[in-house]
Amino acid sequence: MSDSSRIYINNKTIFQLSYDAIVVGSGISGGWAAKELCEKGLKTIVLERGRQVEHVKDYPTALKQPWEFENRLELTEEDKRVNPIQSQIYDESCKHFFVNDQEHPYIQDKPFNWIRGYHVGGRSITWGRQVYRLSDLDFTANLKDGHGVDWPIRYSDIAPWYDYVERFIGVSGQVEGIPHLPDGQFLPPMEMNCIEKHFKDSIKKNFDDRWVTHGRVANLTRGYKDRGPCQYRNLCNRGCPFGGYFSSNSSTLPAAFATGNLTLRPHSIVQEVIYDSNTGKAKGVRVIDELTHETIEFYAKVIFLNASTIGTASILLQSKSSSFPNGLGNSSGQIGLNLMDHHKSVGANGEYDGYQEYYYSGRRPTGIYIPRFRNLNDQTKHPDFVRGYGYQADGERSEWKDRMKEDDSFGVDFKKNLTAPGPWKMWMGAWGECLPNQNNKMWLDKSLKDKWGLPLVNISFEFGENERSMRKDAMNSAAEMLDKTGFKNITTFDYEPAPGTTVHEMGTARMGRDPKTSVLNSYNQMHDVKNVFITDGSCMPSGGCQNPSLTYMALTARACDYAVNELKKNNL
Amino acid sequence: MNRRKFISSLFILAGGAAATYYGNKYFESHDNPDFVFLEKYKELLGDLAEVIIPATDTPGAKEAKVHEYIIHMIKHEKDVKIQNNFINGLKDLKEFTLNEFNLSFEMLNKEQKVAVVRYFQKDGENYKGNLGKVKNKFFGKSFFLILKEYTCIGYCTSMLGATKGLAYQAIPSKYLAVTNYSSGQKSWATK
Predict the structure, then answer these.
(1) Is the model's pLDDT at A106 over the cut of 90?
(2) Residue A407, C-beta contacts closer than 8 angstroms, at least 6 positions apart
(3) Which residues are CB-neighbours of A296 under 8 A, at least 6 positions away?
(4) pLDDT of A396-408, one tens digit each?
(5) For residue A84, is the peptide bond before it cis, meaning its omega torsion is within 30 degrees of 0?
(6) A360 min Cα distance to partner chain B (Å)
(7) What is the ipTM of this complex?
(8) Chain A: nearest CA to B22, how far in angstroms?
(9) Under a CB-based contact definition with an 8 Å cutoff, are residues A52 and A58 in contact?
(10) Of A477, A392, A476, A472, whose CA–CA distance to A428 is shortest?
(11) How close is the nearest chain A Cα to the Cα of B69, in Å?
(12) DSSP string of A125-192?
């Protein structure tokens, strides 16, 4: 067999068909796999199902002023009708980085917002950029309370990889020494404004067990590796022409290209991973060209699946063979189960009398963070739920968008109020952990197919009693904290968004110690198929309450290191 | 102008018989919206927006071409209830003004314009509170509320409104977490 001599010609681009490594997906974890594998000398092809998005060049709205948008960034009825799911997240300035709901249908057995960006860079362009480490509080959670399966790793296994990843992406944050929210390799933090400083000091006086820190965010407070610094425009989700924040497009893919080892193929929808029963390994992937619908096979020694939690599970379930009739590496039957998302949009608002002589200048692309304070130990145990939540919070002066609704009048005085800053306000919203639960799941439809002939995804997901109890506490605790720190006119909220709205899907191909109950081992390697690695959100045995992307990146770098060593030892 | 009639209509409202004075005859909220009318009375709309956000030491809504934005949003963006509430409200207002003053809205002096808008604001107050929420759901927002909301958004996101009415930095470059604020200083146009 001489696959490596075969070539494939597409749009005058010549693609070799055999590589050392295939990476499926170019989002936040796929970009990392590409960079690591290429830098370690592997000829690597990245298969991206959507179009190319070249850093800077393909950010068409990045430098537009508000008045240059036809609808002035307001959602239209048309958006809500055509894109009922994606339009819950996007606005006029970034809608081109989200899929069209009509073109990419799925079935909601129970309501679940599946937010997607099918293009080079994936959702790393529009991500929230909040990066928080997990700790052993999270890595031991399943073992301690019996939900899900035990993580096969502990904090000490991943800590050096958190360091490694943070040094590359650039994270601004404050060293705090909080045991369950480990510090990282930080650039200087983005400062707190006067109301946030007041809040931090006042929380310290009023609560023994609660912390307030600067948002830890993958935006650069100083120029770093030819990128940035952040220009404080707070328009990150349009793509940043200054490279002020981390994305695959701005950071990992350019690093991978610089090695000369990267081939990137957009419009490549992976239909299945091809299993070779003679070797017991995967030999490649079958791709459907998004535009021409033709089928092509690519081959490699090692395959990384980074197609996102639901995407990766779909590919595995589509990869049926006589050895794996229920999907590749699915001897445990766990693929597609244990889907998780964080729950959010619950908390409180308050107003503060005072500090009228202060304001701020520039638009900081983050807020402040109140790390988890429930169920850390016996003293902080909550009777109604296990695990916990952290708050993202933000203090600011009321501006025209609020002022226009606060004032019933019109005319000269109304204009004066509308255009002047109002009272200081603090907003606190919880991001809460969702328990792994095998009834929350996705599976492939038996009859319905998309326009490429691939089965539609069904999703069935519901937050449970533990999440509901946690939300109640998160709402009341936010109000309590605002009250004790001197805020007035406190209002609580619980918008109960559909699951999926946090866009933190996790868990459909979990890591674990036992191949009977998990899909991946401690190095994100499939128990059943040793040359397939999965390092996107699907690998997570539990979700913590922290924003998860940093953990995917660290696990990816760690898995790449392991995979290349195993390759060298001829173990793959 | 027929001042007595104007005052009596305000009196009816104040007395709690809060039925829309002229509007009922246009209350056909599921008809195809009359965009021809909307386009034809662009000037009237500009003058109305100017009453909400008048020119002072900074430009007003009319100079910021807010009416063009309102027409765009009404035409393309909102459901038929809102489109009709708005266009019918505009028709009401035009007719009301002619009946009360024998003049078109554009010809009125500042005080008269304010009085007319205030009348329609009062009319829209039926829509406040819990009952208002129910009404909003069934009938859509009132003419006045739609006018005010789009005027504010249109103004604050326009070049003149953002850069002169408010303070705008396209590329701040720096973040200063604490700055001194002195009275009269404008708030930021964008977050």
Answers:
(1) yes
(2) A414, A417, A418
(3) A8, A15, A17, A268, A286, A287, A289
(4) 999 999 999 988 8
(5) no
(6) 5
(7) 0.92
(8) 23
(9) yes
(10) A392
(11) 8
(12) TT---B-----HHHHTHHHHH-SS---S--HHHHHHHHHHHHHHH-EE------TTS---SEEPPPPP
Q: How far apart are CA B181 and CA B166, in angstroms?
A: 14
Q: Do A362 and B148 touch (CB under 8 A)?
A: no
pTM for the predicted model, two decimal places: 0.93
- What number of C-beta contacts closer than 8 Å exist between A and B? 150
Q: What is the DSSP string of A334-369?
A: -TT-S-B--B--EEEEEEES--TTEEEES--S--EE
B162–A contact, CB cutoff 8 A: yes
pLDDT digits (tens, 9 = 90+) for A298-349: 999 999 999 999 999 999 999 999 999 999 999 999 999 999 999 999 999 9
- Residues of B with CB below 8 A from A74's CB? 73, 77, 153
Q: Give whole-number Cα distances, A326 to A148, A163, A275, A316, A381, in Å.
A: 21, 38, 13, 9, 41
Cross-chain CB nearest to B52 (options A72, A191, A410):
A410
- Which residues in chain B touch residue A237, judged by CB atoms under 8 angstroms apart? none
Domain ranges for chain B: 1-30, 32-165
Interchain pair A232, B173: CB under 8 A: yes
Pick from A562, A569, A564: nearest CA to A161: A562
Residue A448 gets the label, from left (phi > 0), alpha (psi -120 to 50) or beta, of beta
| Per-residue confidence (pLDDT) for residue A9, from 0 to 100 | 57
